[in-house]
Amino acid sequence: MMSVATGWYDSGFWKIAVPAACSLASAAIGVWGGRRLAYPKRRLIYCRRKNISLLNASDQAANALNVTHGGIALQRPRIVEVELKNVGRQDIAATAFHDSDPVTFDLGAMAVAVLDAQSYPQTTTAPKVNTSGQVLEVLPCRLARKQVVVYSVLVDGPLAELGCRSSLIDIDVIEEAAVDEEARHARSARLLRVKLVAAFVIFAFSFSAIYIQAITSSNEKILDRESVIRQLEDCRRLEKEKPGIDFGSTCPPIRYRR
């Protein structure tokens, strides 16, 4: 019995595997992109921009200068600037404040008064705040994407670190000093993911191109089984009718197995 030889690319496995691989690559990219759209990164960064004493050591020692507020003398007056930045890809809604709890900042010194509140860009509004003891409370509000808010607070007390407490829902609240290192690792991980996805996509499409080229070539060079049988029969008939004549151009070698 005679049958036409076929290449590896004619296997039914590859005819299924190659389209499946391309489909999986497309699906993976779609899932990754859809997840980024459905669950965008939301992050609020804070930092203490300034913590400046209004009196130097010589002024305090000589009692040459006094600072009062509301008729009350301040012993160690300082100006503290607290900055908030919404660096996420979407706005932070007021509903993200769990149970309407404020985001609180421990200034490390008695908060006397909020002197100023600036918001950038100018089309945005700074959230309202309250003070309670050493704490600055940022009340529930909408923080626009890329919005920056700076509060200038008059405090009475020593130089201290800035602390934060937040119950925002699904939003990371991070001090800027810790963000730099985290951002470096995040960029490295993100770059690695992009490289892996790109490599997989390139492999899938390259393999698909090779497969399609092989199929096209096979269709051009290899006849189907019935055509091969007919051609072999014609060649045998010609060889019997006209022995000694070379029919090489009419009957080229054809790959087959018995």
Total separate domains: 2
Order of helices and strands: EHEHEEEEEEEEEEHHE
> Order of strands in the sheet with the most strands?
7-10-5-2-12
What is the correct CATH architecture of the largest domain? Sandwich
Provide the CATH topology of the largest domain. Answer: Immunoglobulin-like
Question: Helical segment tally?
Answer: 4
Number of beta strands: 13
Q: What percent of the residues sit in helical stretches (DSSP H or I)?
A: 25-40%
What's the CATH C level of the largest domain? Answer: Mainly Beta
Secondary structural class: alpha+beta
How much of the sequence lies in strands comes to 25-35%
Largest sheet: 5 strands, mixed
Please mark out the parts with pLDDT under 50 across 5 or more consecutive residues, or reply none.
1-5
Residue-averaged pLDDT, rounded? 76
The Rg value, from CA coordinates, equals 38 Å
Query: Which overall shape is indicated by the principal axes computed on the Cα atoms?
Result: rod-shaped
End-to-end Cα distance, whole Å, is 6 Å
